[in-house]
Design brief:
Two copies of one chain form a homodimer. By secondary structure, chain A is α/β, with parallel strands linked by helices. Chain A folds into two domains: 4-29 and 126-362, Type I PLP-dependent aspartate aminotransferase-like (Major domain) (Aspartate Aminotransferase, domain 2), CATH 3.40.640; 404-529, Aspartate Aminotransferase, domain 1, CATH 3.90.1150. Helix content of chain A is 36%, strand content 14%. Chain A has helices spanning 4-9, 12-19, 114-117, 127-141, 156-167, 183-190, 213-221, 223-226, 252-264, 300-307, 344-356, 363-383, 392-417, 420-423, 454-475, 489-492, 509-529, and strands spanning 52-53, 66-73, 96-99, 148-153, 172-177, 194-198, 200-201, 210-211, 233-238, 268-272, 321-326, 338-343, 427-430, 437-442, 477-478, 480-481, 498-502. A seven-stranded mixed beta sheet of chain A has the order 4-12-11-10-9-5-6, with helices on both faces. In chain A, strand 10 (268-272), helix 10 and strand 11 (321-326) form a beta-alpha-beta unit. Chains A and B meet through strand 1, strand 2, helix 5, helix 6 and helix 12 of A and strand 1, strand 2, helix 5, helix 6 and helix 12 of B. Strand 2 of chain A pairs antiparallel with strand 2 of chain B, so a sheet runs across the interface.
Chain lengths: 547, 547
């Protein structure tokens, strides 16, 4: 049992004692002993207080070609079908902020400047940006324990790569939602570990959505019968909020249950949360374009305290959770900027990996982001609430982005609901609670999946999905096949009769409408042609080769 | 023998056949099979020419907060002691360039824009920046063979990390100059390989400078007697131009000799060249501030064709050279931006590593650099030479940076020449041909290094150097100790009686003058106190503990 007192005294040393054995065997090989560090000086040495620095090969900032950066930014994301003009017109005014050569005066600690950010800098990230990200964590996901920190990374792919480097070796198994962002497997496989699937409940019911806890518990209680050849050195990789590809979100109750199971079996939890800020209010088929964000019925306070889902960090009594966030979805993917929050021992180990690989995330990316957060915070305080926290401006922007995704979701859903194929019940449209993806579950005719043999049934599902894909490509709609996002196809093929579609990228409502129509046409063809004499193409019994 | 005809037909397949066995055993574990790739489609499928894209989770660019970036840049680096004011004054005009939301018209392929660069993008880097870096390679280091390419990385540390990931496993040994940028060892050790030192000739003679080829040849001919336990799977890591820390540069003749040795023994060559553009004309003690760059006696053509030293790529008939460049020294370190040039097979393997780690270098860093190169190129064509190549503007900037480093070198050297300790011959100042570092060789009194025992002599050298370090810290001067930059201290301690100093970072000439004085004071103390009854501090016989 962890008591409150334990929590307050949870220290670096305790984290080290508890989690050192969870690290990859190779991690201790990452010995960094920078040549410029001076050690062992005599105690009575009287060091000069201002020595002339002739050591490191750092160019003076006057040698940088860059003198000043100015950024024009949006007050709100462009609205679908009503996008802003592509260029800044002479005389048009936009709000802007700067990255000066030197920050001065009272803003020095919050506003990043060229002299610092464009120089060699800290492996853990620029201190001002770290402080902003700490505030992001604190505002909506305050950890229970004190001794946590953040590390700025070069985006979530970099975070995943570093975290896998830290934990995974040939003894490690990473438990994954059976459908997931499968790139995780490449990282794990390269580190010589393996991934195993955990059953996922994909439904419209908020309580049951997400990892099947009965399955998880049984799996861990009976690990050696499930996987007799695998050691029980485990990491759970979970996208708990707005799961990719299914869009489901774990309830807080479910998170607590999963957390307890992980504690019992000493499982490290990697909580990847790229989509969490894109909260989507319930779709209303009777008033399809209704958007509570635009009606102003969702205030910033409601957004932060009611809509955003609490991270595993808020229930983490032991420091076994690593939370991965990214600026790709609410900022820009090209920033290649994200962060990891975790206990200080793990952050230190991750920082050591940074030192040996990318050193630090781009200083330009860090400063352009840092100063945006600073600008938005300052402006929010000035224009909306003088007592607001500096980070509120950023959450206000995140809320606007969520509002625009809600609008995009509405437009696409409305278009899909109006299609013939939807009306004919050729598929179900599952509503995501969050994120940028929705799930189209293909209703299979019984005669398509008729075999009594399990393996053959799976082939039949795959072949039908592949036939649908071919139709989609001809009618003009490009989704992702659910079965391409399985950790173990054999384990999940029974449930892989779905498509992932996104409402992220289109420029106009017309495109979504066209996409829905083209999708509908493909479903009509599937239902008319498949397994009849109208069937086109000579698809093998197992569907497309190589897929 | 490779004939001209072979060179012209050197293909990806041939590179693969020749170099696949040089890769790390783990590289083939890096299997990436993105879930969005569609394979095996029937030949008679009639794909829609404009399908609606509902696949990837890419935010539309109108969701990015950034609308327009404008950068004020310098025409020339700030001059030591005459730095520009720290802030842009109202009304002051600077040249500037933009990163627009959308590039349009004729500049579309050369000017990077927010819509592309701030989005998810190519693992190999933005095509426009890749093309600029290809031009950088072609202009001064045209490879002999055709089938080479470039990969944009997140800076040289990232390049080193990726290249070590690619080649090094427990069977690999990386041959290094005995004094070098020792961070390479961390990468190699982590990949479970080892580093061994190669003797370096550090002298003022341009012909003999650099790797001792007699030693190298003997080492490789008699590998199994030198290192009976190590397989002969070898990589050479060399900083051929303006070596770190010694500042020496290999002559072209020496490079050819080394290249032939590497071919004979199937050694991969990693040519790291962070300092190559910082060419320093000969220092003239009689006219110490003479700077041929400022006299305009060095034209761009002279700079490019005479001063810049030819890369190993220019003599690489087999495709075994990987050239590492960085934008840190002539751009800004905080860009975290560099590139690797190599044969197309190796570039493809490196790109695969990118996909699995950082994905791509920051799009903001890439676009701010790309558009600077575009701006400088366009302006150079307009103002100087309408027939110039687009990349000449960048080389012109590099030349100005080299000019400023020459000035900084002059100021520091003048100051050092004027010190008492220099006049008393307490040390020698070795002149670098290139880069930002100089070498101070400590003249040791015979009585300091008096032991007949080899090991004890090495301890005596270390102790004297540590005593000097203590004096330096008290008098106020912070250099790097040569022995901290050894691959194998035991191998090199005899030759490690030197300091590395830099003329990169100071703000003013006064600081260099103060640094020289403080250094001189430390040398005076060393010579007065060391091994006399005036000796301070109770240094152990092996010098500072832990150093």
């Amino acid at each position: 049992m962890t008591t409150d007192k334990d929590l307050n005294t949870t220290s670096y040393d305790k984290f080290k004692a508890n989690f050192e054995s969870a690290l990859s065997k190779l991690d201790c090989n990452r010995v960094t002993d920078p040549f410029y560090i001076i050690k062992g000086l005599p105690e009575d040495l009287k060091q000069s207080s201002s020595p002339v620095y002739l050591a490191g090969g750092m160019p003076h900032e006057s040698m940088f070609p860059f003198k000043h950066v100015s950024v024009k930014y949006r007050d709100a994301p462009g609205s679908l079908g009503n996008l802003e003009s592509s260029t800044i017109k002479e005389g048009e005014s936009y709000n802007s902020y700067d990255i000066p050569l030197y920050s001065e005066g009272s803003v020095k600690n919050q506003q990043s400047d060229i002299a610092r950010a464009f120089q060699y800098s800290e492996n853990v990230g620029l201190e001002s940006l770290r402080e902003f990200t700490r505030q992001i964590i604190k505002k909506v996901n305050t950890p229970i324990y004190d001794n946590w920190d953040v590390l700025i990374t070069s985006g979530s792919s970099d975070s995943l790569s570093k975290v896998c480097d830290l934990f995974v070796d040939e003894d490690t198994t990473v438990l994954c939602e059976e459908f997931t962002f499968v790139n995780i497997c490449s990282h794990v496989k390269y580190a010589q570990g393996s991934c195993v699937p955990v059953k996922l409940e994909v439904s419209d019911d908020p309580k049951s959505q997400g990892i099947d806890t009965t399955y998880l518990s049984d799996l861990l209680e009976n690990w050696s019968s499930y996987y007799p050849d695998k050691k029980k050195k485990l990491v759970l990789y979970t996208i708990a909020t707005g799961q990719n590809p299914t869009g489901v979100t774990q309830s807080l109750e479910k998170r607590k249950e999963i957390y307890d199971i992980c504690c019992k079996h000493n499982v490290i939890i990697l909580e990847d949360d790229p989509y969490g800020y894109l909260q989507l209010p319930k779709y209303n088929a009777k008033d399809p374009l209704k958007n509570p964000y635009q009606d102003n019925t969702i205030t910033l306070d409601v957004f932060c305290s009611k809509l955003l889902k609490p991270s595993y960090m808020t229930i983490d009594t032991e420091g076994r959770v690593l939370r991965l966030e990214t600026f790709s979805k609410v900022g820009s993917p090209g920033l290649r900027l994200g962060f990891i929050a975790a206990n200080t021992y793990l952050i230190e180990r991750l920082s050591n990996i940074s030192f040996m690989t990318s050193r630090n995330a781009s200083g330009i990316s860090q400063s352009i982001t840092n100063n945006l957060l600073f600008e938005l915070g300052t402006r929010y305080q000035k224009e909306v609430d003088s007592k607001a926290s500096m980070i509120d401006g950023w959450f206000n922007w995140c809320m606007k982005i969520a509002g625009e995704y809600t609008h995009r979701r509405n437009v696409l859903f409305k278009a899909i609901h109006e299609t013939e194929a939807f009306k004919k019940n050729y598929f179900q449209l599952l509503e995501p609670s969050c994120g940028m993806f929705a799930t189209i579950v293909v209703n299979m005719k019984p005669e398509w999946i008729s075999s009594d043999d399990k393996t053959k049934r799976k082939d039949q599902i795959k072949r039908a999905m592949d036939y649908l894909l071919c139709c989609l490509l001809e009618t003009g709609c490009l989704p992702i096949l659910g079965y391409k996002m399985t950790i173990c196809r054999d384990f999940s093929m029974d449930r892989a009769n779905f498509l992932r579609i996104t409402f992220a990228k289109a420029e106009s409502a017309e495109i979504f409408e066209q996409g829905a129509k083209n999708m509908s046409a493909a479903f009509e063809r599937l239902n008319e042609e498949y397994m009849t004499d109208k069937e086109l193409w000579d698809l093998p019994a197992t569907g497309l080769v190589g897929m």
